[in-house]
Amino acid sequence: MKGSRLGIVVIIAIAFAALYGLNRLSQRAQEGQELPLPEEEVAQSQTSKSQETEFVAGPSGQQLGDPKAKVRVVAVVPMGVACHMQTMQILQEIAKADPKRVRVEFYDMNSPQGQKELAKHGIHCATVLVNGKFEWKVKRNGKEQTVVCQRKPNEPMSTYYSTDLIEIVHQELQRQYGKGFEPAVLEKLCKKGRQILGIPGAMTLPEEPVSPKAKVVVEVLTPSQQASIYPLFANTVEALQPLKKRYGEALAIRVYSLTTREGQARLHELNLSGPAVVINGKTVHELEEPGKGKRQIVTAFGSSSLQFTPEDVRKVVLALLKKP
After folding, report:
1. Which is nearest to 70 in space by CA: 198, 207, 169?
2. What top-level class would CATH report for the domain 63-195?
3. Where would I find the H helices in 98-136?
4. CB 243 within 8 A of CB 202
5. Are the C-beta atoms of 229 and 299 separated by less than 8 Å?
6. Domains of the chain, residue spans
7. Which residues pair with residue 136 across a beta bridge?
8. Which CATH architecture has domain 200-322?
9. For residue 75, what are the β-bridge partners?
């Protein structure tokens, strides 16, 4: 009898403790306090944070590389502004790739040091200078093009991509030392550039020349990964992968994120207003299917009452690839 009474007392005590615990959690939640996470979630959260900050540049005045290096890169940008982070991240990778021959310096354009650097060259906007120059020639689609490494507030569509800086520094290394990056180092830098820009490894970087053998060029202008329509574009890229493997250089696929300056620049060049899949320069296509006749497919999101599907894009691309 005593044993059963003791058991009842223990059960009541456990129940009281559980109710007290729930009440405290509820009270903390109402007060806006952060609730404790399970160990697994804490680990995942810490991993996620470390991945997000892996490439974050240091404070104004940070200097990377040998002070005696013949290639000096000076980035004068507004620190903390998201749209400049990719440029800073890529420059960090460049400095790490060849620290004896390349020196990279970061300055907040709103700091005295930053203002002094800008005044030296008579400029007033975010700029990346390589040995004192911000205007360079790079190759795009097999053609030489002049790019200006500046971001102007009143001209958001700048003429250069962050990854152009890899080629520019490579050129200057050749000029100063007679030899650019080692092939393996250059390949690694380009791969890192893809990672920073969020471009899948199988895709073509925006500034890489399209093969002369390319019969179809697909440009995927994606929205933010947080957007509800993002899966449509991600699945479209995925749907094209078998065709890429099958047709090789005959199919070129480029991916631009509209959250980047590069993506916004391409959007402007194509005279579009939002996310789209551009196939050989067009977003309106006519597809003829056996037994179904002809139908029009619009691959610019929101430009038609009928939303395109990844399969629509695949069919259009396949039809163009098969065309004599």
Report:
1. 169
2. alpha beta
3. 112-121
4. no
5. no
6. 63-195, 200-322
7. 147
8. 3-Layer(aba) Sandwich (3.40)
9. 106, 128
- Taking a C-beta distance cutoff of 8 angstroms, is the pair 166, 186 a contact? yes
| Fold equal for 63-195 and 200-322 | yes
Q: Indicate if the alpha-carbon torsion angle 196, 199, 204, 209 is positive or negative.
A: negative
Residues ≥6 apart with Cβ < 8 Å to 180 = 170, 171, 173, 174, 186
Phi, psi of 299 (to 5 degrees): -105, 20
pLDDT by residue for the chain (324 residues), tens only, comes to: 545 555 555 555 555 554 444 444 444 333 333 333 333 333 333 433 333 334 344 556 788 999 999 999 999 988 877 667 888 899 999 999 999 999 999 999 888 888 888 898 888 888 999 999 999 988 766 678 888 888 766 554 456 778 889 999 999 999 999 999 999 999 999 888 877 776 665 556 665 667 778 899 999 999 877 677 888 888 898 899 899 999 998 999 998 888 777 888 889 999 999 999 999 999 999 988 887 788 899 999 876 667 889 999 999 999 999 988
